[in-house]
UniProtKB/TrEMBL annotation:
<feature type="domain" description="SAICAR synthetase/ADE2 N-terminal">
    <location>
        <begin position="6"/>
        <end position="235"/>
    </location>
</feature>
<keyword id="KW-0658">Purine biosynthesis</keyword>
<dbReference type="InterPro" id="IPR033934">
    <property type="entry name" value="SAICAR_synt_PurC"/>
</dbReference>
<dbReference type="GO" id="GO:0006189">
    <property type="term" value="P:'de novo' IMP biosynthetic process"/>
</dbReference>
<dbReference type="GO" id="GO:0009236">
    <property type="term" value="P:cobalamin biosynthetic process"/>
</dbReference>
<dbReference type="InterPro" id="IPR001636">
    <property type="entry name" value="SAICAR_synth"/>
</dbReference>
<keyword id="KW-0436">Ligase</keyword>
<comment type="pathway">
    <text>Purine metabolism; IMP biosynthesis via de novo pathway; 5-amino-1-(5-phospho-D-ribosyl)imidazole-4-carboxamide from 5-amino-1-(5-phospho-D-ribosyl)imidazole-4-carboxylate: step 1/2.</text>
</comment>
<dbReference type="InterPro" id="IPR018236">
    <property type="entry name" value="SAICAR_synthetase_CS"/>
</dbReference>
<dbReference type="Pfam" id="PF01259">
    <property type="entry name" value="SAICAR_synt"/>
</dbReference>
<keyword id="KW-0547">Nucleotide-binding</keyword>
<keyword id="KW-0067">ATP-binding</keyword>
<dbReference type="GO" id="GO:0005829">
    <property type="term" value="C:cytosol"/>
</dbReference>
<comment type="similarity">
    <text>Belongs to the SAICAR synthetase family.</text>
</comment>
<protein>
    <recommendedName>
        <fullName>Phosphoribosylaminoimidazole-succinocarboxamide synthase</fullName>
        <ecNumber>6.3.2.6</ecNumber>
    </recommendedName>
</protein>
<dbReference type="InterPro" id="IPR050089">
    <property type="entry name" value="SAICAR_synthetase"/>
</dbReference>
<dbReference type="GO" id="GO:0004639">
    <property type="term" value="F:phosphoribosylaminoimidazolesuccinocarboxamide synthase activity"/>
</dbReference>
Length: 252
């Protein structure tokens, strides 16, 4: 399709005007970042894998009645999504201690939590996406109490879906983050799961070996990120079993 006007460029995706009012074309880049973009590389094929995987998860959520902004995939790197007003929060659901939670609370990585814990971070790269409470969210007007009730419900439904899907292919869902958008239909507003769901935004460990199959491979220099994402895609049937992983090209 013809290239349209660029709306926004982030660390992993570029957004363009969609072909119809109220739509956006989401382009998945090969850029990989970590530690608030302090570590950067370009990894060939990453954007293609994330596009395919995000399509898989968003379609699955749509099919079980969890609303998302996803409309359809356009090609190997682009998908058409509904335009929405993003609530400035990262919604994090944790099933096991890992990453910042493990270091912040002194809990051994991999410890199963007594129940899923939902955390919120204020989306601001300059501030490092700080952890915030519902008191902060209410005080600064980022979301209403009804919004927060709906966000919590959506996050836990996404968690149930992703946990089951991953467990079925021998992967443990450690944690994940999502973004939520507001869609307006006349005077009516509803919340939808937006942005993407991919190994960029989840921690995924092999159920038996504990091997990491997510962006921690890049963060911690544990091997090929493309191989890890390809393995997730293969297990989910997004790629044919005989597909050979692309060799990653690293550009400093």
């Amino acid at each position: 399709m013809a290239r349209r006007k660029k709306i926004y460029e982030g660390k992993a995706k570029t957004l363009y005007e969609g072909p119809e009012p109220g739509t956006i074309v989401q382009y998945f880049k090969d850029d990989a970042t970590a530690f608030n973009a302090q570590k950067k590389d370009v990894i060939e094929g990453k954007g293609v894998l994330n596009n395919l995987l995000s399509e898989y998860f968003m379609l699955g959520l749509n099919n079980i009645g969890v609303p998302t902004h996803f409309l359809r995939r356009l090609n190997m790197r682009e998908q058409l999504v509904r335009s929405c007003e993003i609530i400035p929060l990262e919604v994090i659901v944790r099933n096991f201690a890992a990453g910042s939670m493990a270091s912040r609370l002194g809990i051994e990585e991999g410890t199963q939590l007594p129940r899923p814990i939902v955390e919120y971070c204020y989306k601001d790269d300059k501030l490092g996406d700080p952890l915030v409470t519902e008191e902060h969210i209410a005080a600064f007007g980022w979301a209403s109490q009804q919004d927060m009730d709906d966000i919590l419900s959506l996050a836990l439904r996404v968690n149930d879906f992703l946990s089951g899907v991953m467990y079925g292919v021998g992967i443990k869902l450690i944690d994940f983050k999502i973004e939520i958008g507001r869609v307006y239909e006349g005077d009516y507003q509803r919340l939808v799961v937006a942005d993407e769901i991919s190994p960029d935004s989840c921690r995924l460990w092999d159920l038996e070996t504990g091997q990491k199959l997510d962006k921690d491979v890049f963060r911690r220099d544990l091997g090929s990120l493309t191989d890890a994402y390809t393995e997730v895609a293969r297990r989910l049937g997004v790629l044919p079993k005989g597909t050979a992983p692309a060799k990653p090209t690293l550009i400093n």
